[in-house]
């Protein structure tokens, strides 16, 4: 029986040591008991495993063991357990990252493509992706995609197309159009696979992990982080990319209330980013200490460690390079939000003033949505006079932004929830 996507069913268990050990040993009795302890009824477990409840009880009580390959496959597919965890081939629903054994990703890139990518990245960091989306799609369609049909093309053409498709996804996400972003990321991954570029594939998986998290799907975010880490292990050393993937794994675990997993992943991210960096891959997004500090602050916030969230948000702001207006704004929002969780309203007002210095022309619907979230969180404190004055200024700022971003706001019902 074909099931709808069920990535959420095993959320919180894919990184559980007991669960992983049981999967490795194909101890389905323990797997079923752990699922049952997570609140899944025996009826649902039996249905998804394709067995009767009586047979399920035999497995859970240790009277029988699963031996048929078909049942292992049904369990993997029903609960979205990656095939490798049960000693199976990659399942049909798993995003596939194909790289020939021992093959290094093509890192030669057309100079014009690289120049265009650099220009788009710099403009995106400075002014947001909202007004760049059309230009990126136009470059992808008119300059890159038409070369894909050339019988003499090289693999790097597919890599370039994948990189620009991924960038279009980020521009769509920054415009609040997350469903469109998801489609771009899916196409980007297909192109990266066609190029045999494992590092670009891993980079796209990291982007998909971020998007899943923004859409309220921590299990999907964790899944994509695992896909990316598997892909990056097949290519040349890429410590910054590995660090980014571990950071996304930590973010997903923090939201899923798995603090131990989140802390271990953050430790790995900091460790990997501290390694000597190899030559930059032409299509892999930069990930530096400011980026890691920003992701760490968010993970700490979601784990309820608000003092640590403040510390890392301040570090992200301090390390943020000139010209990264969106990153600076997002880190300032994280800082103010962490102070709000700490119920330090004086700090909220103090650092909120810095947030109001954000260039109102920054074309990022994502930033506008996060500011709206912050406003909703602070309204309960408006009886405090300094807070009431700050909210009035924030409202004035939001109105100005709404007018400037009116043509970018997605239609009602499209994009991510705010």
Automatic annotation (TrEMBL):
This is Helix-turn-helix transcriptional regulator. Gene3D superfamilies: Tetratricopeptide repeat domain (1.25.40.10). It comes from Streptomyces morookaense. One of its GO terms (molecular function) is DNA binding.
């Amino acid at each position: 029986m074909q099931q709808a996507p069920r990535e959420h069913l095993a959320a919180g268990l894919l990184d559980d040591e007991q669960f992983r050990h049981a999967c490795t040993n194909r101890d389905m009795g323990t797997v079923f008991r752990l699922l049952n302890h997570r609140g899944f009824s025996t009826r649902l477990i039996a249905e998804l495993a394709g067995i009767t409840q009586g047979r399920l009880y035999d497995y859970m009580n240790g009277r029988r063991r699963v031996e048929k390959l078909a049942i292992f496959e049904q369990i993997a597919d029903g609960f979205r357990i990656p095939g490798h965890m049960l000693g199976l081939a990659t399942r049909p629903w798993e995003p596939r990252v194909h790289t020939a054994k021992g093959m290094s990703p093509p890192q030669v890139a057309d100079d014009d493509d690289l120049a265009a990518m650099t220009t788009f990245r710099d403009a995106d960091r400075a002014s947001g992706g909202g007004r760049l989306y059309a230009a990126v799609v136009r470059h992808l369609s008119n300059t890159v995609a038409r070369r894909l049909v050339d019988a003499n093309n090289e693999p790097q053409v597919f890599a370039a197309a994948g990189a620009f498709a991924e960038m279009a996804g980020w521009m769509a996400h920054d415009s609040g159009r997350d469903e469109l972003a998801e489609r771009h990321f899916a196409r980007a991954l297909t192109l990266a696979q066609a190029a045999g570029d494992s590092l670009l594939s891993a980079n796209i998986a990291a982007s998909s992990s971020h998007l899943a998290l923004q859409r309220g799907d921590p299990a999907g975010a964790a899944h994509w982080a695992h896909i990316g880490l598997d892909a990056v292990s097949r290519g040349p050393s890429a410590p910054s990319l590995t660090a980014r993937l571990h950071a996304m794994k930590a973010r997903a675990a923090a939201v899923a209330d798995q603090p131990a997993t989140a802390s271990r992943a953050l430790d790995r991210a900091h460790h990997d980013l501290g390694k000597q960096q190899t030559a930059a891959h032409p299509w892999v997004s930069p990930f530096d200490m400011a980026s890691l500090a920003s992701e760490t602050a968010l993970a700490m916030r979601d784990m309820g460690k608000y003092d640590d969230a403040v510390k890392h948000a301040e570090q992200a702001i301090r390390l943020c390079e000139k010209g990264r207006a969106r990153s600076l704004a997002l880190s300032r929002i994280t800082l103010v939000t962490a102070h709000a969780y700490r119920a330090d309203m004086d700090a909220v007002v103090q650092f909120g003033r810095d947030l109001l210095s954000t260039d109102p022309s920054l074309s990022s619907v994502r930033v506008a949505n996060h500011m709206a979230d912050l406003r909703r969180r602070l309204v309960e404190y408006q009886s405090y006079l300094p807070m009431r004055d700050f909210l009035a200024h924030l409202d004035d700022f939001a109105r100005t932004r709404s007018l400037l971003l009116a043509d970018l706001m997605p239609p009602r019902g499209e994009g991510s929830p705010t």
